[in-house]
Backbone:
């Protein structure tokens, strides 16, 4: 790959992602205060309006910048874990469906159609209303709901590849189904899946933030961007902009991911003459 | 493009049922019996009649089939919602009363709520009642759910209707302008703006609008309260901000996909012909490209309207708007399951209906789809 061919917008995206991931990894070293340490008064003004804290304090007097940095950790970790899991489920099941065909394919595809007939957020609300509020459950629910979209793309891509001669050759050699899935199809389906991974990751960030905002995502006192908006939303009425800062962070991260994905998609499209 | 949650279009697969069955489903139970009965000994007796009907009215047959599939899907979704809630761990009576409840009290509550009945009995009772418009009573408030939903559904649809009224023409218009000035400043601006708008969470857009227009300028009121008997104009003013938020949320998706749909058609040879015979670019797009891109555009619009109905949930919470989405979120926080199930079913029904409408409109607008090969 030629570094000069990477467009400027993609560099912005990559730089933004680097900053966010840096914050997530080195949170305890960068953050000036602790995650839930109360350091000042309620909703103190940010530094540009003459306050002592760079971004001001939140509804309990915690430093907003520190929580933002720790929040990057939670938000990115949960979104990435959910997306990875969704891809593992989705890719495995969709490739299996495409390779085995017949009733396996029918059963999995119809089940997928059924799941997709219920809006994601509504499904999540119903399920999370019943399940205990724990982190791994949240990740699992997000992953299962997201895997339906991965399944759809994965099956479309894999059906095309299964029809190729080299897959038939592998079959005639007597390779097992798992070999065909992982050694024949997966390497050839990687580039469309990679772009999709970015899109799903951006979507997972937004979805997690929405759930946290509705009070069903990450539970306090852990910092997470959607939850921070929820904590500080009452300040809006008094003209306190604290809720807008984590909101900006979410938007910033999602824009960066989308910029990188856009570039990846264009690259794939120019290589293959259209996206599968 | 894949970021549009739930573009569930390939319901076509479900169409591989015997050709007759879906046709019969939307009718009364009686008609179902009549058409299924001869099918049991052998399909030979039934096929010709249905085949004749399908041959004579291909469009009506297709539409009836879609209706039937959607209805089956809705029943399946209701089962998923019910079983999902049922199969998950946790005893509602226990949660409802708290940890210190005596076993006797838990038992009483269970009997009161009908939880001691077998799951299948409860499911069919619930489904039967729901189909006749009775969603039971809320556990938290002991009020009739149907009454609450009835009042709030009107508010939600009012909001969604005006958001659609503004966003659809705007998206299609801007999409055409974007194609007209392709790769020029207007197109670039539209592109950058829509990419940013896709990446913004609904609640963020909502709060920025509140912060700017309600707090800093003070031109609109917050929260967006509406009540029965409110004058129409006051109501419109109250929904101005939530409506603007929804428009921004769906506009970008619709715009980008409209642009893509028209650009796709612009590759066709007849567009080149139109250009070569000296038509202006605006006229080419308006008269030659847009009508041929109608099917995908209608599809995009319907899918985004389906998304709008879901986006309403968050927007209602942000603006404290008394709609069905807020009702559902409130019910989720107190684990009021009958309300959650009722709202879930309603949202799913609207969603399935709009997807079906997208399907049917696409078929109507493109004659080639009427005779699948």
Residues:
């Amino acid at each position: 790959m030629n570094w000069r061919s990477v467009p400027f917008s993609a560099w912005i995206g990559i730089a933004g992602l680097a900053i966010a991931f840096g914050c997530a990894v080195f949170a305890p070293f960068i953050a000036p205060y602790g995650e839930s340490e109360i350091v000042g008064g309620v909703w103190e003004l940010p530094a540009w309006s003459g306050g002592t804290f760079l971004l001001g304090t939140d509804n309990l007097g915690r430093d907003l910048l520190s929580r933002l940095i720790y929040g990057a950790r939670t938000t990115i970790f949960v979104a990435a874990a959910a997306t990875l899991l969704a891809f593992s489920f989705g890719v495995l099941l969709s490739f299996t469906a495409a390779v085995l065909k017949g009733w396996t394919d029918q059963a999995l595809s119809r089940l997928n159609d059924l799941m997709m007939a219920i809006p994601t957020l509504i499904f999540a609300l119903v399920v999370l209303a019943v399940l205990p509020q724990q982190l791994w459950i949240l990740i699992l629910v997000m992953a299962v709901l997201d895997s339906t979209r991965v399944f759809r793309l994965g099956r479309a891509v894999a059906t095309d590849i299964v029809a190729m001669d080299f897959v038939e050759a592998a079959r005639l050699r007597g390779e097992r189904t798992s070999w065909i899935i992982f050694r024949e199809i997966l390497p050839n389906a990687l580039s469309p899946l990679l772009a999709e991974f970015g899109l799903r990751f951006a979507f997972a960030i937004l979805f997690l933030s929405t759930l946290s905002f509705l009070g069903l995502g990450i539970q306090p006192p852990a910092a997470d961007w959607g939850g921070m908006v929820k904590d500080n939303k009452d300040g809006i009425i008094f003209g306190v902009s604290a809720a807008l800062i984590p909101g900006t962070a979410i938007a910033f991260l999602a824009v960066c991911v989308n910029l990188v994905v856009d570039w990846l998609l264009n690259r794939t499209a120019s290589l293959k003459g259209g996206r599968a | 493009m894949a970021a549009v949650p739930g573009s569930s279009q390939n319901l076509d697969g479900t169409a591989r049922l015997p050709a007759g069955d879906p046709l019969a489903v939307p009718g009364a139970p009686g008609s179902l019996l009549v058409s299924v009965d001869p099918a049991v000994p052998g399909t030979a007796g039934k096929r010709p009649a249905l085949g004749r009907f399908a041959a004579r009215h291909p469009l009506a047959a297709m539409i009836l089939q879609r209706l039937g599939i959607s209805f089956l899907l809705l029943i399946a979704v209701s089962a998923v919602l019910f079983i999902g809630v049922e199969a998950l761990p946790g005893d509602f009576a226990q949660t409802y009363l708290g940890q210190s409840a005596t076993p006797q009290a838990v038992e009483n509550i269970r009997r009161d709520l009908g939880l001691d009945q077998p799951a299948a009995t409860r499911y069919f009772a619930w489904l039967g009642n729901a189909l006749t418009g009775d969603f039971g009573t809320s556990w938290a408030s002991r009020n009739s759910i149907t009454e609450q939903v009835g009042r709030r559904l009107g508010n939600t649809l009012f909001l969604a209707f005006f958001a659609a009224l503004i966003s659809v023409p705007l998206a299609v218009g801007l999409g055409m302008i974007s194609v007209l000035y392709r790769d020029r400043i207007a197109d670039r601006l539209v592109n950058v703006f829509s990419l940013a708008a896709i990446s913004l969470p609904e609640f963020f857009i909502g709060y920025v609008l509140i912060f700017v227009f309600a707090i800093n300028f003070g031109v609109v009121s917050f929260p967006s309260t509406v009540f029965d008997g409110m004058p129409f104009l006051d109501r419109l003013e109250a929904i101005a901000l939530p409506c603007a938020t929804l428009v921004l949320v769906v506009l970008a998706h619709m715009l980008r996909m409209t642009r893509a749909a028209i650009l796709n058609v612009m590759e066709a040879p007849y567009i080149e012909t139109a250009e070569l015979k000296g038509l202006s670019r605006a006229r080419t797009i308006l008269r030659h490209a847009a009508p041929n891109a109608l099917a995908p555009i209608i599809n995009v619009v319907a899918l985004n309207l389906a998304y709008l109905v879901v986006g309403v949930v968050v927007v209602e919470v942000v603006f404290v708007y008394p709609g069905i989405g807020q009702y559902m979120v409130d019910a989720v926080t107190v684990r009021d399951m009958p309300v959650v199930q009722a709202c879930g079913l309603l949202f799913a029904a609207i969603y399935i209906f709009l997807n079906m409408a997208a399907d049917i409109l696409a078929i109507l607008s493109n004659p080639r789809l009427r005779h699948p090969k």
